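Structure, all two chains, one model.
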Amino acid sequence: QKEVEQDPGPLSVPEGAIVSLNCTYSNSAFQYFMWYRQYSRKGPELLMYTYSSGNKEDGRFTAQVDKSSKYISLFIRDSQPSDSATYLCAMSVTGGSYIPTFGRGTSLIVHP
Amino acid sequence: NAGVTQTPKFRVLKTGQSMTLLCAQDMNHEYMYWYRQDPGMGLRLIHYSVGEGTTAKGEVPDGYNVSRLKKQNFLLGLESAAPSQTSVYFCASGGTNTGELFFGEGSRLTVL
């Protein structure tokens, strides 16, 4: 079992839908949780990050961490075709870990 | 505002040839990384560096060498290319120990 599990999809939704992307993990020492977005033929870009548990909102995006269930989510409201990309979760431990552990990514397609 | 720049963006090699990928960052980041990304495999860490003059092995280091003679540059070398090294290579840098990374646009390498 990988340390971070992420369904590769693809996840296909109509424009305007609420999208839920998820990752599960096994290492309870993870404290930093990140979401990266990767457009086709581009490098990943950091979308959001949260520390420990709770929610964080940025415009149409909400990141949620449930440490008790070892489960993180990214919600996208009012999804747009421009949101079509691969979304990678990543997480790291505190105390000087320079290396995040990435999920394999979920491909999202938002069709008009 | 360049961020992380990779050169070359595309390269075709014959088996046994050597080459070097160059990564340059202008954010004064301490940490730099080389990843490869293959379909269905996600991002896999090849080598990384936690400061000028330092390097360390990642998950898949065999067949690659790296050097970090200057803080802003991180070089990835292939001494004798093999078809299994056909991939997209991403360089990343980070300024904190939380795993937040900034990626380059990628270098597509094909080994025939």
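The CA atoms of residues 56 and 77 of chain B lie 14 Å apart.
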